[in-house]
Amino acid sequence: SDVCSSDLSEQSEAVLKAACDAVRKADLVIIQDMAKGLFSTKLLQSIIKASASEGRPVVVDPERGEDYSRYAGASYLLPNRLRWFKMKRSKSRCTSLITNLTSSLPT
Question: In the chain, how many H helices and how many E strands?
């Protein structure tokens, strides 16, 4: 099925369509999640999948929350220093995601 169509809200569908159009022209996709309510998990996953289908790496500046699994499939997570230490200490289900995404980063 087309990753650029989904069962999202009307507003999220419009964002996804714009994102898919931009992904086709981009070399890299950057998502800055400011926790303002725009990026539902479903919308994030749709954008990440659309980017992957076009072979585009995805860089995410994650929100302050504790559930980083919502960024699964992203190429890189770039949290600020405080979030990075919280992520590393977290025993949540996103530990393997963080490990996979950061295994190539210098310590």
Answer: 4, 3
Ranges of residues in the chain with a pLDDT under 70 are 1-2, 5-6, 84-107
Q: Which residue's structure tokens are 């949290």?
A: 79
Query: What's residue 87's pLDDT?
Result: 65
Nearest alpha-carbon partner for 58 in 40, 70, 66: 70
Structure tokens at 37: 């309510």
* Residue 56 to residues 74, 87, 92, 106, Cα–Cα distance (Å): 10, 25, 28, 23
* pTM score, whole prediction: 0.73
HSE value, Cβ hemisphere, 13 Å, CA-based, for 58: 26
